[in-house]
Amino acid sequence: MNILICDDNRDIVVQEEFVIEEAMSAIKKHGNIRTFTSAKECLKAVKENPKTYGIVFLDIEMPYISGLELGKKIKEINPIIQVIFVTSFEKYSLSAYEVHPFHYIVKPLRAEKVKEILLSILQYEKTGETANSSKIKVEINRDLILIPTETIHFIEKEKNICNIVTEFKEYQVYISLNDLEEQIMKLNADALYRCHQSFVVNLKYVQKYEGNKFILENGNIIPISRGKKTEARRRFYDMLREVEKP
User: How would DSSP label each residue in 51-64?
Assistant: First the structure.
């Protein structure tokens, strides 16, 4: 696990290095951490060793080259490197989406939060997904979280929150199911299907269709609205045919 840190403030770089080392130790992972106070020098390190580093923590507000611009340039060199934006601003910039960051975190870094991010990266990489995998964007405790659609088993609406249940963990998000469905449609994530007013299900994880419910591989039961029974059945069998194609 080789990591880069870039922030124009030397004190912050030292503090972040200490926190990341603590987080790596907690998950029993070893690797090298290189620190930079110059975006130019950080970019040079990536150019010289394009496949060496898997994660980069970038400050957004830096002179000469912003963290956003640096992130874009790094992604051009190594598309699979995971970019973590670190900033003093509570509200993330929409332009950060263009870099396809893995995470967005507000300063100061905390070991527990970094540990969570590193574990998420390790789990994410196990799926073998590429940097172009579709991801829905949600905000939890001021942090931007990108959730690969392929890992989502189902989404359940409960009052004013949505529970996003993935292969690895569950996220509780203050967002409407309609907003999530809109993201899903824009991403053309066809496997994610809204089968009920309160549920979106990933058809790839459905083991059985029973008229008024889907039964997932892990045993979870997802209800189907009365008015969507015919469509749900068709979508399920269409998905089966796709899976069975040579």
Answer: TT--EEEEES--SS
pTM of the model: 0.57
Cα–Cα distance between 53 and 55 in angstroms, integer?
A: 6
89-108 confidence digits (pLDDT tens):
655 554 555 566 677 788 88
Using one digit for the tens of pLDDT, what is the confidence trace for 43-66? 999 999 988 999 999 998 888 888
| Cβ pair 85, 92 in contact under 8 A | yes
Q: Where are the beta strands (DSSP E) in the chain?
A: 3-6, 33-36, 55-59, 82-87, 103-106, 135-140, 143-148, 152-158, 161-166, 170-173, 192-196, 199-202, 206-209, 213-216, 221-223
φ and ψ at 213, to 5 degrees? -160, 155
How much is the CA Rg of the chain, to the nearest whole Å? Answer: 20
Residue 129 burial (CB < 10 Å; 0-12/13-18/19+)?
A: middle
